[in-house]
Structure formats: structure tokens, C-alpha cells
Please model this.
Amino acid sequence: MNTSSRRSGVRPATALLAGLALAAGLTACGSDGGDDTATDPAASSSSASDTPSETPAETPSGTPSDELIETIPESGSGSSGTIPAVGSAGVTEATMVSGTEGGGSASTMALALDTDRAVSEFVAGLEGALRQTVTSTVTQVAEQSPDATPYGAVVSIGCDAPTGVSVDAGEAGFQVVPQLPKSNVQCLAPITYVVVFAAPDA
Model:
């Protein structure tokens, strides 16, 4: 009787210890699984937050001010072209020479450019390459119209290029009035516009 009672007391204790060990093992496994599932969202969220920072913001290659500076012509540089002319002087076309910051003073009175001295005095107030361009233009106009006298006038200084000129004969000489466009053109430096034309000899 004593031996059977001892055995019966030992078996419940052994079963209790085995049950506790099994419960501890299940708890450990459950915590490991929870850690694994909690780690994955954190990793995915961190990688998602890193993605926008990896894409650099695009910036324009140049500023408007840089572009404007690049388009400024050289000071005094001269360019020429033919424009229509009307008026009582019988002139139908004129050559207009322009230059950025070319100097000179605007006037409606044209000067006869029939001698080297007259040409030198006319271009004396002009700057840079514009001076040489006007001198060459006077020579070309004189060669193309041997039966006429070349005249010149600084018709405008500003940003608006004349689209044509009116040349009228008066008591004091030829009066040249530029025909300017209605819309104002913006520019960073004033432009000098010189008109050269050939007036028929009387």
C-alpha cells in the first residue's frame, strides 16, 4: 500500500513539469513568430521612405538672366539691311545700319555724305564697329547710284527698329522721319539706327 501511494504521488508531479515545459516552448515559438511578422512591415516602411530621397530634384540648366546676357550683342557691333522709303524726295528705299550702344544723336535732318571729310564727321560720334559699317555702307550706296548723292541720318536710338522711313525734301535739306512699330520692344541696351540713302541729283 505504501509503495503504490508513492508512485501515485510521483506521476502527477512529472506530468505537471512536462506540461509547464510544453507551455514554455509554445510561448517561445509564438514570440519568435511575432517578432518575424513585426520586423517585415518595419523594413518595408523604411525602404518606402528611402525611395523618394533617392530621386534628385531636377533643376533648370540655366537661368533667364544667363540667357539674356548671352544674347547681348557686342558694344557698337553693326548690322545692315534695306527698308522701304516714301516721301517727296523720290527715295524708294534706304539702307539701315544698327548697332547696340552705337552712340550718336538722333536727328531728322540728313547730311550729305559726298566727301571723305563729310563721312568722317558724320561717323565721329558713333562707337565701335558701327562706325566702320556706316562708312562702308556709304561707299556702297555711292557706287550703286553714281548719279545720286548719298545722305545719312541717325534716325532713332532705342529698342524699336524702324520699319521704314519718310524722306521729304525741304528748304534746309532732306528730312527723314522713321516709321516705328506700335509695340514696344524690351532690350537691355539702347540701339543706334542709322539710315543711308541716295537722293537723285537735280
